[in-house]
# Entry
Amino acid sequence: MLVRQCNVGMVMTNCFFIINEETKEVALVDPGDQAKRLLDQCRQLGLTLKVILLTHGHFDHIMAVPALKEATGATVYASKAEDALLMDAEYNLSGAWQHRPLTVKADVLLQDGEEFTVCGTPVKMILTPGHTCGSCCYYLPEQGWLFSGDTLFLESYGRLDLPTAMPSRMASSIKDKLLVLPEETVVYPGHNDLTTIGHEKKHNPMAGWA
Ligand SMILES: [Zn+2]
# Structure
């Protein structure tokens, strides 16, 4: 398995390709915009898009989903707790911030801790409310990868002032559910640079919260 990164949309969201090099199947994490460009990349790399994993429902993580789904029939996963935000163009900010009101109906709504298989490798969904009420992360134990959306950033964390945010839950989501993962876990966040769990245990402002 390997990861490729592509930045999409007006706020340079990190969209990640999780690629099985043997089967040439790919899962996209947070295809936030520019569906045609993402499809072109899949085509150039000879990849079949099978799965879309959404860390949360904000517009800058979902805008490409309808076009990708129509073109490929990929299965869309999200947390059950995020369903209402995904289905509300006001809450997901697509109307106000992008002037392209949009809703997304996930095919599979996951529960906290639910394990499933993506492109031949196990994935565990970790529910991490805070940035939104249904934000989640995807942990790939065999690779030691965590796709953290707008929950955990390099020495930082996601905004806590947007619709459905739960500021009081962010510290426990990060400390109790993410920083307990193996220190060598590579963190692929929704914005900015990669990090590791070990680095964030030392440097994340949420790590010290009681
Ligand atoms: Zn967000």
In short: DSSP finds seven helices and 14 strands in the chain. Residues 56, 58, 131, 150, 158 surround zinc ion (CB under 6 Å). Residues 2-208 form a domain with the Metallo-beta-lactamase; Chain A fold (CATH 3.60.15.10). The first helix runs from residue 35 to 45.
